[in-house]
Amino acid sequence: MAPVAASTIHAWREAKQKPKKEKALGLICVSFDQRNHGSREVDAVSNGTWRDGNKTHAQDMFSSYHGTATDTSHLMNYITSYVFPTSEHPIVDHLVLGVSLGGHAAWHCITHDPRITTAIVIIGCPDYIRLMSDRAMLSKLATWTNSNPLESSFLGSTDFPTGLVEAAKKYDPAGLFLGEVMSRDTNFYDVDPTASEQRRLLPLMRRSFQGKRILNMAGSADKLVPYKCGEPFLRWLKNSTAAKGWFNEGGVVFEDIVFDGVSHDMSPEMVREAHRFVIEALEQAPAETAERASKI
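Above: the chain sequence. Below: its structure as tokens.
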């Protein structure tokens, strides 16, 4: 992610060419490895899939990127004391960008940390249960293929234990907002929630998304994280936050772009869109705070 961080800073500098007498809003980009990946790897087996022989693939993957989202919030707690130890500049806003596992983590970050106002999700998914259900089917897990009706034994099995189901319902966007996946019929995502459901959802939506900006990007040919797995929740969120949606008061900016022919990869077009979205977010900074402030 270091090259993405560097290119984003360069794009911001190019966009904000100002006379030296004017002080532009600064941008700090911090990149770090996922838990148990890269320089932080402690157990390579835990990064494997069911097909690789990792029986706890579902638990390992979710706990890894949920932990990375927690790490992001922890970093935000202390970074000012390191980069500005004499408090010469305030950090006025926080943005998050993640790719693949980082994209999954970015959904957790924007959902659960009110300090983060912008998220750029690249080939990530907001619905872990649908994603792993699709993967279980393709992997031909016995808990999927041998159940009657098909798939009925997967959730709550040793491949996707009840404790993990509960964690997904608590931390994953689709689980948090929409509840048990098995209770959602085909029309669920296209109709407004009932009045009682809106009373439950309203404080969650305000806490998680009000006034925030989200750019979700996916590849149409992505087989590892298929767009179809996250599409129902993304459609529900778009409908909810649209001008005529039931949460139109939230001021949510939500863009969802699918790139034709792109597989599980961050394409140059995605990078350009990410730069564009970051610049637009930075330009929203109030003039009175922008003079001597930074965003991270």
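DSSP finds eleven helices and six strands in the chain.
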